[in-house]
Write a structure and sequence with these properties.
This protein is an alpha+beta fold. The protein has 9 helices and 5 strands, in the order αααααααββαβαββ. Strands 2-1-3-4-5 form a 5-stranded mixed sheet, sandwiched between helices. Strand 4 and strand 5 form a beta hairpin. Helix 2 crosses helix 3. The longest helix is centred in the middle third of the chain and has 21 residues. The chain starts with 18 loop residues before the first helix and ends in a 7-residue tail after the last strand.
């Protein structure tokens, strides 16, 4: 019968090696990513300490916190010693980090090109494992008046209703708008449906004197601009 090496729990470690004590004594920047996650989950399993388990969770995401931020609660709960409660703690902590980054960065208020629109929208859309459709409402000076999520779907698509989009635009006194959605697959190439929907919205915008200036497809840290590619 295979035997496991007896693991020593965190409470039996030297005080300087315990994540919570390290944080208290030296500050949060002194801790590794695995030690910070270990504080979140509190305990490991019979074969692993919380730190060992955290290292394994990180390794499964290539030790990349951006990739870990995309992992679902169900996938995290598959790790032995991580139930739904601990998985929720990890997801919540990573989401707080994402929101902190979004709120601390200076948002672009005037849109001068596709990069400005991407910089404003990517914090909400880059890490999603489902599709969302957003619209930026602009005034006549191309200053952003609002950013609004129109719909949320699955991994392969979301429903886009032009009536809802233009109602949001009218309710916010839009002079123009930029539309955007994400591709969780990472593929930036617009689908036939993406092109069809874009044409419908651009044509409707011209009729209503409310032009659609661009349509962005966002995937991870990259984007595709219909305007830049001459597809509007």
């Amino acid at each position: 019968m295979a035997t496991y090496e007896q693991k020593i729990g965190i409470k039996h470690w030297a005080e300087a090696d315990r994540p919570r004590e390290k944080l208290l004594q030296h500050g949060r920047r002194y801790l590794s990513d695995a030690e910070l996650i270990a504080i979140l989950i509190g305990s490991g399993n019979r074969q692993e300490t919380a730190v060992d388990l955290s290292k394994r969770i990180l390794a499964a995401s290539e030790n990349n916190l951006d990739l870990l931020g995309k992992v679902s609660i169900n996938d995290l709960a598959k790790f032995k010693g991580i139930g739904s409660v601990k998985a929720i703690s990890i997801v919540a902590a990573l989401e707080l980090g994402r929101r902190r980054k979004e709120s601390s960065s200076s948002p672009v208020l005037k849109i001068t090109g596709s990069r400005d629109a991407y910089d404003l929208l990517s914090p909400m859309m880059a890490d999603l494992n489902h599709e969302e459709f957003w619209v930026l409402i602009l005034n006549r000076a191309n200053l952003v008046k609002a950013k609004i999520m129109i719909s949320r779907g699955g991994q392969s698509g979301t429903v886009v209703d032009p009536k809802i989009i233009f109602k949001c635009a009218l309710d916010n006194n839009a002079a123009a708008m930029i539309i955007a959605h994400n591709h969780p697959s990472g593929n930036l190439k617009p689908s036939a449906e993406d092109i069809k929907v874009t044409k419908r919205l651009v044509d409707a915008g011209k009729m209503m004197d409310m032009p659609v200036l661009d349509h962005l497809i966002i995937a991870d840290k990259l984007f595709f601009s219909f305007a830049d590619e001459g597809l509007l």
